[in-house]
Amino acid sequence: MSPCAQLLSSSYCVRADLHTHTTASDGRLSPPGLVEKAALRGIELLSITDHDTVAAYPLARIAAQQHGVTLLPGVELSVQVGRRDIHLLAYGFDLTDPALGAALAEYRTKRITRAETIVERLAGLGVRIRFERVWYHAKGGVLGRPHIAKALLEAGLVATFGEAFDRYLGTEAPAYVAKTDQPASAMMALVHAAGGVTVLAHPGINLDEAVGAALVADGLDGVEVVHPSHNPLAKRRWAAFAAQHDLLTTGGSDYHGFGTFEDENFGSYTPPSAWVERLLARVAHPEAA
Ligand code: AMP
Ligand code: ZN
Ligand code: FE
Ligand code: FE
Fold first, then answer.
1. pLDDT tens across 27-39, in order?
2. Using 50, 70 and 90 to split pLDDT, how confident is the model at 242?
3. What is the pLDDT of residue 22?
4. Which residue of 145, 167, 206, 256 sits with most ligand 1 atoms within 8 Å of its CB, as the best mutation to test the pocket?
5. Closest CA to 135 of 153, 152, 123, 147
6. Which ligand has an atom closest to residue 252 CA?
7. Mean pLDDT of all residues in the chain?
8. Which of 52, 32, 37, 145 lies closest to 107, judged by CA?
């Protein structure tokens, strides 16, 4: 049993953050840096949920042992429903599962092609950045729009990170390129085969119950209820949805390490212990060993 589960079997309340990012995707802190900061914030159970990669874990694990933080295997997957890019969190799977690893690797390659297309579209709009700068900002990790936004900012083509999304990269903006189709059912089956569960990330941002119900039919196991983008109404709405469909409920800060707002969030969006306990009981790998 993981140390955390032992703690939970008493009346002790565990402080958890189940949604965080590192430099392995689009976060600012290195994996050990994130773990160290989590320990300072009193977080005892941490899941690193980088976009489409689990590369943070080998380095994070060493730091976690040093600081006494329990690491729950995690990843944030992108799947497409129509033109919409939906994020699924996966937890408690085998970090070395070959089939899941291959699917993640393939998706990362597709992200490179997509980023190249976005940079071409920007050039078509007269906004020129060098692709090497996008690579630079990705620090060898998973290429995403935030890295293009940084390249735009650095080149003085936008005044703020947010402006890059508003003017060019956002879903309604002219240089937006959707990710390639990745069916939710196939990804969820891979996670299940690797011993894990899947959770719909931050549905309160832009989703409705019909999308949630379709994912439940495809094998969704849970819903992220506690998230900085969720107001009390959204929390109540998605907690009710989870109860209706007998789903797991989770929460986290979605910390990327940018700005004072995110900094305050880290450690402040902890899901109730009972939710964590239920989640850990459902997965084959409750601790990154
Ligand atoms: P990608 O996975 O490449 O589509 O990039 C998605 C990431 O971009 C999200 O996880 C956020 O970190 C960031 N992002 C998306 N929309 C915005 C926005 N309007 N402003 C700032 N960051 C955003
Ligand atoms: Zn992100
Ligand atoms: Fe997300
Ligand atoms: Fe996230």
1. 999 999 999 999 9
2. very high
3. 96
4. 145
5. 147
6. 4
7. 93
8. 52
Phi then psi dihedrals of residue 96, to 5 deg: -105, 15
- The arithmetic mean of pLDDT across residues 159-178, rounded, is 95
Tokens read off for 65: 């042992």
34: helix, strand or coil: helix
Q: Which atom of ligand 1 is nearest to the CA of 145?
A: 3
The two three-digit tokens of residue 211, written as one number: 């999308």
- Please determine, for residue 11, whether its predicted confidence score (pLDDT) is greater than 70: no
Cβ pair 42, 267 in contact under 8 A: yes
Instruction: For the chain, state the CA radius of gyration.
Output: 18
Query: Residue 76 Cα, ligand 3 centroid: separation in angstroms?
Result: 7
Strands 222-226, 248-251: pairing is parallel
119 Cα: distance to centroid of ligand 1 (angstroms): 16
What is d(CA 289, CA 284) in angstroms, rounded to the nearest whole number?
Answer: 12
Joined together, the tokens standing for residue 115 give 């980023």
Residue carrying structure tokens 């694990």 = 61
Cα pseudo-dihedral 95, 79, 87, 130, rounded to 10: 90
Q: Long-range contact list for 206-213, CB < 8 A, 24+ apart?
A: 206/84, 207/86, 209/241, 211/81, 211/84, 211/86, 212/238, 212/241, 212/245, 213/245
The ligand 1 atom nearest the CA atom of 144? 3
The stretches of the chain forming alpha helices (DSSP H) are: 3-9, 31-40, 57-67, 98-124, 131-138, 145-154, 161-164, 184-193, 209-217, 232-244, 259-265, 273-282
**Distance, C-alpha 210 to centroid of its chain:** 22
